[in-house]
Amino acid sequence: IKRVGVLTSGGDSPGMNAAIRAVVRACAYYNVECVGIYRGYQGMIEGDFKEMGPRDVKNIINKGGTILKSARSADFRTAEGRKRAYENLVAAGIDSFVVIGGDGSFTGAEIFNEEYKFPVIGIPGTIDNDIFGTSHTLGYDTALNTVIDAIDKIRDTANSHNRLFFVEVMGRDAGHIALNAGIGAGAEEILIPEEDFGLERLVESLKRSKDSGKTSSIVVVSEGDKIGKNVFELKDYIEENMPEYDVRVSVLGHMQRGGSPSCFDRVLASRLGVKAVETLLEGKSNFMVGLYQDKVTLTPLEQAIKGQSEIDMELVKVSDIVSS
Ligand code: F6P
């Protein structure tokens, strides 16, 4: 391994810059060259590369987004696109790469490795925390803090007006953000994709809230929840069936993906970035570096893609108890 490529791919997440910095500086530390690949796999296909040294990544550990930019490349899903990417890597003398992204990005890496036997290591970067083989993905902790900060503010106005708010949070197919930020922000109810608790339970719970003297309520709804109604339909439903509630909706959206990474995410990014380079230098490929019981671990990419990052149902019980 003499020249390592690094790219960020898929939805960006806070901590990606810190991971790029760690990869670039680990390469310098171990005397191998490092090349930044722009716009994820799309930049690989278009040969959008830039040599990177330690000073190129100064002052970015605290920045959200990704200096390398990111993309969800449709071209990389085609054999033709991957062939072009391979040819560009070879022409640029790049002999391995580190991809920072989610399961879609890892799937691309896996297929590419199968076709071209190209050494690759994945770093889990997504706010959704939906990757098997790591307790935390880059950006998840920051997103949780962003969400509780936003809900705290919503709570202020909800309280002033005795209102019920449905707050939609991200997490396409995973309820980690909803469940943890929901508990952290003291939500009355939390709806997640992993479990359909049903409308009746929601109505019952809101009734109990009213009866117990609560004046405002927050229901956190994961964007992929399975209750069969989006936040606006939920609002209509509750207003129709529980006229005692004055309901508003707040969709937090992409603000959850931005912002300065938390200390946890910066440290995680630094540890995973260094380990990714070290793993390549040990001659290993097709692994994801992750965190398990606060130790940096390796998981085969295939397992990271296929495995389920499960929701801790204990948290559902905790939420029920502490929101009563
Ligand atoms: O996977 C991260 C994520 O932010 C999801 O939570 C969300 O559903 C999706 O990306 C949004 O993707 P896009 O930015 O392409 O709209």
UniProtKB/TrEMBL annotation:
Give the gene that encodes this protein: pfkA
Function text: Catalyzes the phosphorylation of D-fructose 6-phosphate to fructose 1,6-bisphosphate by ATP, the first committing step of glycolysis.
Query: What keywords appear on the UniProt entry?
Result: Allosteric enzyme, ATP-binding, Cytoplasm, Glycolysis, Kinase, Magnesium, Metal-binding, Nucleotide-binding, Transferase
The record's section on InterPro entries has: ATP_PFK, ATP_PFK_prok-type, PFKA_ATP_prok, Phosphofructokinase_CS, Phosphofructokinase_dom, PKF_sf
Localisation: Cytoplasm
Mind telling me which PROSITE patterns this protein's record contains? PHOSPHOFRUCTOKINASE (PS00433)
Specify the species. Answer: Flavobacterium helocola
Q: Which cofactor does it need?
A: Mg(2+)
UniProt record similarity statement = Belongs to the phosphofructokinase type A (PFKA) family. ATP-dependent PFK group I subfamily. Prokaryotic clade 'B1' sub-subfamily.
Q: Which residues are noted in the entry as substrate-binding?
A: 126-128, 163, 170-172, 223, 248, 254-257
Where's it mainly located? Answer: cytoplasm
Q: Where does Mg(2+) bind?
A: 103
Instruction: Report the GO molecular function annotations.
Output: 6-phosphofructokinase activity
The enzyme class is: transferase
What's its catalytic activity?
Answer: beta-D-fructose 6-phosphate + ATP = beta-D-fructose 1,6-bisphosphate + ADP + H(+)
| Catalytic residue positions | 128 (proton acceptor)
Q: What is its EC number?
A: 2.7.1.11
How its function is modulated: the record gives: Allosterically activated by ADP and other diphosphonucleosides, and allosterically inhibited by phosphoenolpyruvate.
Q: How does it assemble?
A: Homotetramer.
Q: Which Gene3D superfamilies match?
A: 3.40.50.450, Phosphofructokinase domain
Q: What is this protein called?
A: ATP-dependent 6-phosphofructokinase
* Binding positions (ATP): 11, 72-73, 102-105
Phylogenetic classification of the source organism: Bacteria, Pseudomonadati, Bacteroidota, Flavobacteriia, Flavobacteriales
- Where ADP binds, per the record, is at 21-25, 155, 186-188, 214-216
Pathway(s) the chain acts in:
Carbohydrate degradation; glycolysis; D-glyceraldehyde 3-phosphate and glycerone phosphate from D-glucose: step 3/4
